[in-house]
Amino acid sequence: MSWRGGRTITSPDTLPAVRGLLLLFVSVWVALVWGPANAALPVGAALAIVGSVLTQPGSADRRPAAAALTVSLSIVVAIGILAGGYPPLFIVAVVAACLVTGLLWMFGGGAGLTGVAVVVVLLTTGSVPATLSATVQMVGMVLGFGVAHLLFAARWPRREELDECRAIAARYRALAGYAGALVEGRSADLPGEAARGVATSDIPSRIASTLQSLCAGDCSGCRAPGCENSLQAAAAVLAALGDEHRQAPCRAADALHRLDDLREPATTAAVCRLRGQLHQAVAARFGLDEPLSASSPRAGIARIRDQIRWSSPLLRHAVRLAVGVGGALAVARYQNMPEGVWMALTVLLVLRPVCPRLYERFVERVAGAAAGLTLATAITVIWHPGPAVIALLVIAFLATGWAVHAQGPWGITTVAAAAVAIATQPGPADGVLGHRLAATAIGAVIAVGMYLLVPEPPRAKVCRGITEVLRAQMAYAAVEVRAFVDPGAVDADTRNAARDLALMTRRVFESGGATAHLRTPDTADLLDTARHEADALALAVAVLDTQLPRHRHCPGTVLSQAGEEYATALLGTCLPWRLDAGWLLSAGEALRLEAASLNDDEGVAVLLAQLDAITRHALALSDLAERVTGHLSYAYAIGDNVH
Asked: Is 560 contained in some domain?
């Protein structure tokens, strides 16, 4: 995710994370010493959620969201404690929470995992004494330590970050003014803010260079047909990019849609390049594929409402989660199983939306949960640590979880189960590890049963394969386009790696399509159409690969800039990933117009033909996937990093 200033941050800030861990240590210790029985786990889990939101990298200000989450968690804690004394009511509350959590995955892996953590808080509050005093204590601790996190653990933007954000906004405002002057026909020089770094490769500088080329002698002026209206719409997009208010993403999205709606004749290469650059600028500055959906709660609710249909893979996951966790909890409550809560916790921790290599990752998560549970239980039973040591071990496990998050599903599940187990006060020491492992095994069986009883819709499986093929082919095509327009820019190893990935993804798609149970003619037609489009797309990229020129006599700047813009549009820069049709069409048209000016280059005809084919078949595959799920990035919103 990009910060609002357009600056990409890939590593968390150490100081806010350390402050959050210290506050979490204090909250767990206080809950163990002065809180009601079994209070440490729900309090610690609630504060861990707030801390993770506040210290998330790439955020300008997470405090409003963390404050709302703190209040919501205090309400969840109160509901869990008060309903805990009435098993049917408590089970209904958990089932409802699981249904909501399952649908949250449509907003990405972070939202889905946050929902899972909230359900952990609700589940563990059921073991707290259902008294008014315990409820007041628990709600007070969650609210009090939540406010402490807001005051001391929040990530405050550094002065240099704020200065950078203001400087980038000022550059966009200057570019908007320059574009407006060109529309009005006034002679204007590029302002100092926009001209700064015009020779560099950052997005505002490239936009400034494109605006200058629009009024160059070889561009027939900004009064050319199709140029004036496009410049006017581009100026509105630039003005929204320079806006520093909260509604700026909405304004940018609206202005960008108006720009895309303009399809006028005699459009120059510079105008097409400008449209593509503005798409990239909006994605980079606001870090979203659709800013309107993130800034408008009504749009988010509408997206959830669209998923309330049995053909939706997310609704089926929500049903799997609710029935699995609710059933495990009912068995544990009514059969009085020792350590029976671990049945429901295991189902909650290992069930994820269906993804590639589903059962392989499922086994990894179950093994990780059992390993973490065994380690933490052995420490508790053998060592009998005191409150301070327990709180310290919880912090150590959570810190380790942040460190191994990128190591696969087993790593994060191991440390999560260990942190939960170390903060849970076990029953009698005799056989406690065996009881917990038995409950974990039963929970794993229930989770497998949920996958079998509520299978994925065949159309969703086909759609996921389409999306994977599309993304791999786009990466391969981007490499080949870069190599074609600038033969020295890409080495052979990079091209071979992209080709191998595309071939492997295609084989997986074909094998999955061959084993899919296609119950309706529509699904079979969808698969046949997807195969045809994927074949055509792969053929177009392969032709570029075989016709790759060894050298090019024309200057590298003639095609390299337009080719780089098109390759970037193929890859996409949004989170979660999606194929931006407007951006790809604009960048492709700009590259086509630039290449058409090189009639004496023998490879231009090949490039023009395959460029059109790549764009056409990529957009066709994108449309097929989006018609099924309603959101192309579904398969990657729940990608490897959260499984």
From this structure: yes
